[in-house]
């Protein structure tokens, strides 16, 4: 099932994608819903971020080649993380599929994509065993963890490197049925494929990460956990269009502009 | 004016503290409100966290003596921060005035208080000049940034050190009228004063911090920014009661238990 969140009557509504249509519902997939019986064409709706998380979690280095590439770019010896330590992002940075990534005028050229799978929590999780994690998820969506690498190196936190407004495209929808082991993540810039990797080739997989988080923290319905990216990443520039596809979910596509360009 | 958020009819309502009473309102202080004319005794309400932030921001080292004490405890040479780099916390950790701080059974003895003033955003802020920051706030509340120092040193992020459930007491209310320069922050454990410092003796003051954040990020109504603490901090143990007072705001008081103790 594919859940979208879309603009309706000036507010936000959830709907279920069925072919070229959206089945309308009352309620939402977290607190409960019922179908109204009405449909509208998918092409007629304006997509919103598929969920506004209560807390926006993000894993850091969680794929082997990206961990090596990140260390190399800093002139450091690559060292894989030994434990799963979750981080945080700011909700202000989220934008929906199709919305524009805006690079601030004082950013360097080193603004880069990071294609990521996003786990969307469906039911409260506290001290949940690894084997029970996936059944607590509503499903999965796609994130592009846009990063200004100079700020990432200079600042003591990731505040503007990864949380500048528009630096967190997420969508297009939440897919509830996904074969994680079969999924591939693909990043394209202006249609050219930049990287392709098995989505589930994480250092710490979703059941381990979220189970560990839940030992200390309650994960709430609607919380999202971005799971990290793989490989070396490249710069985005004014006029580019960046796509993150995860097979079995869909494509998250956003244009890029630079302020003042 | 003092805004409380309290449990009403199974949900949450805002009210205005007036002497021993709470004036009921329809709406809230962010989107707009009107008084209903009804009152109820303050003593009869159960306080909730005064706001559930869209994003929960927290400054790191932002007072000179705390920065020195933190460096000393790690055997490092003290170095004051040169720029204001905001960090993030998780909403799951928030508890209200009077609720219990629960130390997990696998935490060490080094679980410590940090008394902080909290700026509560009232109006959207993007690229707001320092001189205009305070007029964009709804007001101020009090936070206790409970920290497990061993985890803080070992983990690559602050995820469980500062975001374990119940590790972020916030309240008791939002005070809209405060003379920041006159305010003192006082921490007491079991009634004994542990530290007292001028609340506004920050390295980077609220106008500077929030103006800088707003150059890159939109601060939304209801977002909170915890401004850091001063001095050396001490351990909390099972059976303690910890109070953070900020003169002109009030007292945030929470009991402490250790799981399994």
Q: Can you tell me about this structure?
A:
The structure is a homodimer of 261-residue chains. With 261 residues, chain A is mainly β. In chain A, strands 1, 2, 3, 4, 5, 6, 7, 10, 11, 13 and 16 form an eleven-stranded mixed β-sheet that branches. In chain A, strands 8-18-17-14-15 form a five-stranded mixed β-sheet, with no helix packed on it. In chain A, 45% of the residues are buried. Chain A folds into two domains: 47 residues, Roll (SH3 type barrels), CATH 2.30.30.370; 210 residues, Fumarylacetoacetase-like, C-terminal domain (Fumarylacetoacetate hydrolase, domain 2). The mean pLDDT of chain A is 95. Chains A and B meet through strand 6 and helix 4 of A and strand 6 and helix 4 of B.
């Amino acid at each position: 099932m594919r859940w979208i969140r879309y603009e309706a009557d000036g507010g936000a509504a959830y709907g279920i994608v069925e072919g070229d249509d959206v089945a309308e519902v009352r309620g939402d997939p977290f607190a409960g819903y019922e179908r109204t019986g009405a449909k509208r064409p998918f092409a007629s709706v304006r997509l919103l971020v598929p969920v506004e998380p209560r807390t926006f979690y993000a894993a850091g280095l969680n794929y082997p080649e990206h961990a090596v590439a990140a260390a190399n770019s800093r002139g450091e010896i690559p060292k894989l993380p030994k434990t799963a330590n979750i981080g945080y992002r700011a909700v202000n940075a989220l934008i929906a599929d199709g919305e524009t990534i805006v690079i601030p005028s004082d950013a360097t050229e080193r603004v880069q994509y990071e294609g990521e799978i996003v786990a969307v929590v469906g039911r409260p999780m506290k001290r949940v065993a690894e084997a029970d994690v996936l059944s607590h998820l509503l499903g999965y969506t796609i994130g592009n963890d846009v990063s200004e690498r100079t700020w990432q190196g200079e600042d003591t936190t990731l505040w503007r490197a990864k949380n500048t407004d528009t630096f967190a495209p997420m969508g297009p929808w939440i897919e509830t049925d996904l074969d994680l082991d079969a999924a591939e993540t693909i990043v394209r810039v202006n249609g050219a494929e930049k990287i392709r990797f098995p989505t589930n080739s994480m250092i710490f997989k979703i059941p381990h990460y979220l189970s560990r988080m839940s030992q200390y923290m309650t994960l709430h319905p609607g919380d999202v956990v971005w799971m990290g990216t793989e490989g070396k990443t490249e710069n985005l520039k004014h006029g580019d269009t960046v796509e993150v596809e995860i097979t079995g979910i869909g494509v998250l596509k956003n244009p890029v502009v630079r302020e003042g360009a």
